[in-house]
Design goal:
The chain is 77% helix and 0% strand. It is mostly helical and 204 residues long.
Amino acid sequence: MRRPGVRIGLLLSALLFFGRFGAYTFVSSYLKDQAGFSDAAVGVLLLCFGLAGMVGNFAASAMLDRSLPATLGTAAAVLTGPVMFLGQWHFKPAAVAALCLWGIAYGAIPISLQTYMTRGYAAEGGLALFVTTSQLSLAAGSLIGGLVADNPGLATDYTLFALPAVIAGLLAATRLRSSISATTPPAGSDAPAPAGPGRKPDAQ
């Protein structure tokens, strides 16, 4: 937690999981009550959302070695549009396209965040903090999203919970690259190997 890179990673995790679950928790209600899909169609659309998430996951895996900040920043930016769109427009074909795009964008986020948190020092501790932060954030997002969805309604809920993705995208674009440099151990920082049988200790 004392390293700036870890704090940035946890902040991004909190923003993205909070925003995602503040909106996604009520996507079935949106699709049925606002967009007018039947129960059977909603099931198919949620399956499409999951498949789109797999596409996003594999796409992010291929892009992460090239640029982690660009991958995560692009996913956060792409996530913003569909969530905000779904809150304001109920045109069925557009809702289907927005839902699939949302799935692709979100599918890239967990693997990007986990990759970031495992780079640098104390990867195991960073992953533990990541899991804790994401679980608390998704619970808080679902709770607050429920309050907003009840009053003033789903349109406000989706617009409101698109904002954390906007902030996360800006953070990824402006702070993530320097944070990655800060969390990467400098060359030669590893401790020397202990002397073993047949190996003389280093000269003092």
